Structure formats: C-alpha cells, structure tokens
Amino acid sequence: MAAKVANDWLKPIPIENVEETGKELGRGSYGVVIEVIVNGQRCAGKKLHNLISEGQVARKFTEEALLHNMQHHPNIVDFLGVYYAPHSTLPTLVMEYLPMTLASCLESNNLKIQMKYAILLDVAKGLIYLHQKNPCVIHRDLTANNVLLTHNLLQAKISDLGMSRKWADTMLTKAPGNIAVMPPEALEDNPVYDHKLDVFSYGCLILHVLTGQFPQPTNQFKPKPSRKSADDYIKVPECNRRSYYIEKLPQVSDLTSLVKQCLSDDPTKRPEIKIASSIIEEFISHVVVDGVEEGFALVDVISDLEIRELGIGVGVEETAKALLTAELTSLLTASWMTATIVEGVKIGAEDDDEEEDGAEEEAEELAEDVAIDKQLENQTFLL
C-alpha cells in the first residue's frame, strides 16, 4: 500500500536517464546513498533497503521527497527528482552530489577560521529560508553531518531533510534527531517544540565549528547539594552542560553571547535564526573592514568570504590578481586597499611607495637646481 501511495504522490517529479554506477556513498539504518549519473552529471541517489517497502518508514521516505521537492535555495542541497530502479516499487531520491560533510572537514582540521564563519553564515541563511516558509519547515536534525560542502569549499548546504517537518498552527510533538543537540523541550516524555529547536541546534553547531570538537553535553541532572533521597536531583542549565566548549571559543570570536542565547533553556529567549545570521554577518564585516585581528589576514577574508560570491577561486595568489582587475577595483573599499601583503603576496603598494619616494626626491633635486641657478644668476648680475 505504501509503495502504491509513493508511486501516486511522486508522479509529478520523475527524472529520467539515470545510471547507477554501483558506488556506495553512505549507509544508514533505513537506506543507502549511492552514486548515480544523470545526463552525464554525477549525483547522489538515496534509496531504502530492499526489505523496507511498506509501513511508516516508506511513508516517511515519500514525505521527504515531497518536502524536499518544495525547497529551492542556494544553501539547501538541490533535489533533482525521483526514479525507479528495475524491480523496485519504491523511488530513489536524486540530489546533487556534494563530496564533503562539514563534520569530516572539522575532523581533519583543514578549514581556515574565516571559512568557518562563512559556513556558519551559509547554514543560517538556509535555516532562514526553511523557517520563513509557510508553513514553517523545521529541520530537526541540524548537525555537522548534515551540512555538506562543495568541492572547492565555496558553499555550505543543509542536507537530509528526512527529519524535517512542517509546523503550522500546532507545535510538533514527536521526538526528533540527535539528542546531543536537542533542547530540553524536545527531550520531554511528551515533547512539544517549534522552530526554536533548530536555533538551539545551531548554537551547538557554532560550538562544534569554532572549537573543532563536538559539544557533547554533560548529564542533564545532578544531585542536590543537600539531597535527602536518591531521587533528589536538580536540572542542569543547557549552557552549563556545554560550558567546557563555550570556554574554548576563540577569543577573536564575538559569538559567545549568541551561543548562550541559542542554548537558552527557554525557547522564547532564543533569538530568531535571522538575528543570529545578522550577528555573524556583522562580525565578518567587522573583520573585513578593520583588517587583521588574531590571525585574520584581510586578503584571506576577502578571498574566502567575499570573492567566493563572485565565483573566483579561493587561492590567495589568484585572489590578489583578481583584486587588481578593473572590474573588482570598484568593489573594494579604501580600507581593503591598504592591506597589501598576505602569505607573501604583495599588492603593488610597495611599488607605489617607491614611486612616490622617487618623485619626492626628484622634486627636491629640481628645487635645489633652481636655487643654485638663481644664486649664479645673482652673482653674475653683481659682477
């Protein structure tokens, strides 16, 4: 029955010319992600295990396809459509292929600090889009494993909308994803929550990205100092449960206050994700305008945050060349132009200084020559 419903519901979003390569990209409890080729383009195909073709799992799988098909944003993984493999009654969801998870990049520690802020901004923009949908879409499982990066690290995209749900007039009442990034209201016996759940998870993501460590929380309860029974416990505030990671935030970061707000036990005290995005964007702008702070090299920031939006490569050397072109010069502020040397790349300022110094010396020499000539003229006249 579930397979028939899937066939009926997904008829409007078929995709053809799909070839399975046989390469497995990932595997989970309910399904597998495989590599597929669609019209010559490498893509990812998500399918259920062969033994799961009926029941709630199959229905949820179909719902994911329908929900994902309605989301179109630069910071959400593109959903391309569905196809049916031979001898299969359930669809395979076809999405754009992105080679890296944010979690793997953090584990290998190969992300520059300025790129980490850019990724956080991208994720916030993706959440803004989901939360502003009508009805609001809650991701419910936002972790570094569900943030994918393009091959050149120029863009981050939210993936895996399998846990996502629409939230209209009534709040959701079913426990969502990874409990380590869940707010207290989602951990109740009968959980009731809204889109502020994602804001809490986003606060955990900030900690993970900026410290490089997954913010595993401590126990939710601790014994009272003067307890009289074995059941005498008090609840530990969520910020305190992650205080170790909050204290490890880089000093250059101005996001400690934001993280604490996102991790508030009271969902009404958590900021909207749009506010969090504005704070991060303002911080990035502050770094770009004010130059070098705690290892933030200006051209690095421009290359990784600004130039990437113009479609230019991340390399510092290429960026330096690009900044000298006439097209980009008009986009640069005066403060940008004062930053001249990053990683051994010099942007012409030294040559300008030398020319100015040479011009001043020539002017001084010319003035001296004129003065001498005048003195000679006066001396000749007196004779």
Q: Would you mind describing this structure in some detail?
A:
- This protein is of the alpha+beta class.
- It folds into three domains: 2-96, Phosphorylase Kinase, domain 1 (2-Layer Sandwich); 100-288, Orthogonal Bundle (Transferase(Phosphotransferase), domain 1), CATH 1.10.510; 315-376, no CATH class.
- Helices cover 41% and strands 16% of the residues.
- It has 14 helices and 14 strands.
- A five-stranded antiparallel β-sheet has the order 1-2-3-5-4, with helices on one face. A three-stranded antiparallel β-sheet has the order 6-8-9.
- Helix 1 (2-9) runs parallel beside helix 2 (55-69).
Q: Write down the secondary-structure element order.
A: HEEEHEEEHHEEEEHEEHHHHHHHHEEH
What is the total domain count? 3
CATH C-level class of the largest domain is: Mainly Alpha
Structural class: alpha+beta
Work out the helicity level: 40-55%
Overall geometry: globular
- Counting DSSP H or I runs of 4 or more residues, the number of helices is 14
Beta strand %: 15-25%
Secondary structure: number of strands: 14
Q: Architecture of the largest domain, according to CATH?
A: Orthogonal Bundle
Mean pLDDT: 74
The biggest sheet, with number of strands, parallel, antiparallel or mixed sense and barrel status, is: 5 strands, antiparallel
Please name the fourth-level CATH homologous superfamily of the largest domain: Transferase(Phosphotransferase) domain 1
Roughly how many Å apart are the termini?
Answer: 122 Å
Strand order of the largest sheet: 1-2-3-5-4
CATH topology of the largest domain: Transferase(Phosphotransferase), domain 1
How big is the Rg? 29 Å
Uncertain spans: 1-9, 288-350, 374-383
